[in-house]
């Protein structure tokens, strides 16, 4: 009976905790820079760029509104920042 309880606790922990430890360690060993500050900044900028592009698509049709103009400015600014990071 206790064996079943131990298996039910250890098995999910193995599938959740082990990959979260091994994957970053393997990237660090490979030297891919996946977890470097530059890569983190690039991912953050790409996420924000995607959000603003979705906002721009939502505002499509009202090209003269202030929100649309602001979204266009933010997208161009984020693209310039991405070019600087790359």
Largest sheet: none
Query: Which regions have little confidence, pLDDT < 50, spanning 5+ residues?
Result: none
Strand content: under 5%
Structural class: mainly alpha
Shape: elongated
- For the secondary structure, the number of strands is 0
How would you summarize what this structure contains?
About 85% of the residues lie in helices and about 0% in strands. It has helices spanning about 1-30, 35-60, 65-85.
Describe the structure.
The chain has helices at residues 2-30, 37-59, 66-85. The mean pLDDT is 82. It contains three helices and no strands. The chain folds into two domains: 1-32; 36-86.
Features of the shown structure:
single chain, 86 residues, mainly alpha, 2 domains, 3 helices, 84% helix, elongated
Architecture blueprint of SSEs:
Blueprint: H1 2-30, H2 37-59, H3 66-85
Helix pairs in contact: 2-3
């Amino acid at each position: 009976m206790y064996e079943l309880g131990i298996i039910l606790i250890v098995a999910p922990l193995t599938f959740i905790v082990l990959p979260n430890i091994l994957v970053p360690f393997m990237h660090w060993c490979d030297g891919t820079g996946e977890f470097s500050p530059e890569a983190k900044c690039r991912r953050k900028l790409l996420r924000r760029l995607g959000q603003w592009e979705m906002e721009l698509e939502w505002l499509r049709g009202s090209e003269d509104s202030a929100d649309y103009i602001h979204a266009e400015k933010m997208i161009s600014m984020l693209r310039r920042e991405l070019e600087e990071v790359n």
